[in-house]
From TrEMBL:
Belongs to the dynein light chain family. GO terms for cellular component: cytoplasmic dynein complex; microtubule. GO terms for molecular function: dynein intermediate chain binding. It comes from Oldenlandia corymbosa var. corymbosa. This is Dynein light chain. One of its GO terms (biological process) is microtubule-based process.
Amino acid sequence: MLEGKAVIDETDMLKTMQQDALDLAAKALDFFDVTEATDIAGFIKKAFDRAYGPGWQCIVGTDFGSFVTHCHGCFIYFNIGSLAILLFRGSAAPEIEADHFEAVKAVAA
């Protein structure tokens, strides 16, 4: 396990969900080496899919940027030592209105 306490940088989750995310990350780090970021991410994502329904995404690493759309109340970004973990439930963008779509097509042509 990676030594260090989890530090939450940004979240809009309920405290119980936040604690679930931190507990799962600690458990994942018991099972996987810190260099196995994809396995850690998969472990956390699958557990959240089971507990809170499908659509969760998880990104794990030491150096990444992100810009995501997420469901309200379903976002957390935290660090454990040098390892950063982003967990969120994806959200589809609102439907594009037909007039706006036509305007975008005209500009692109």
